[in-house]
């Protein structure tokens, strides 16, 4: 008699643990489904980004990136954008950015994971641009490069985008 009662009690305790575990898992899944990670980078009048590496965690499902022009030169002379590509697409994307021209904000027509508008340092602006992009399809440990598509800038203005 006592054994049966004990077994029933034990079963209900086990069930509680299982349910609790499921709830925790569910909560983790919900959290993982919507995690926006913020990144900031700026470009200056000396044709440089302030960062050569940008890192996010694999758990980030979205990235909110802000590019700011920290200088004073207009975007016609020293414009900067931020273009993210697979490193294997980088050299092709540099050429494609130039071909796209200022009308397309020097953003390549294809193989672009994400890109901002062209920003300038003077009041004509814009001084900054914020974009949001999904990390869907991007791999942890993958090889990604970001660069500025303004003609001639990418040799100095580039960096690694790392998912860890
Ligand atoms: Cu630039």
Q: What key phrases describe this protein's structure?
A:
binds copper (II) ion, alpha/beta, 2 domains, five-stranded mixed beta sheet, three-stranded mixed beta sheet, 164 residues
Number of helices: 3
Radius of gyration of CA atoms, rounded to a whole number: 24 Å
Q: Mean of the pLDDT scores?
A: 89
**CATH 2nd-level architecture of the largest domain:** Sandwich
Strand content: 25-35%
* Distance from first to last alpha carbon: 56 Å
Structural class based on helices, strands and sheet pairing: alpha/beta
Shape: elongated
The CATH class label of the largest domain is Mainly Beta
Major sheet strand order: 2-8-7-4-5
Residues in helices, as a percent range: 25-40%
Order of helices and strands: HEEEHEHEEEE
Mind summarizing the main beta sheet?
A: 5 strands, mixed
State the fourth-level CATH superfamily of the largest domain: Cupredoxins -  blue copper proteins
List low-confidence stretches. Answer: none
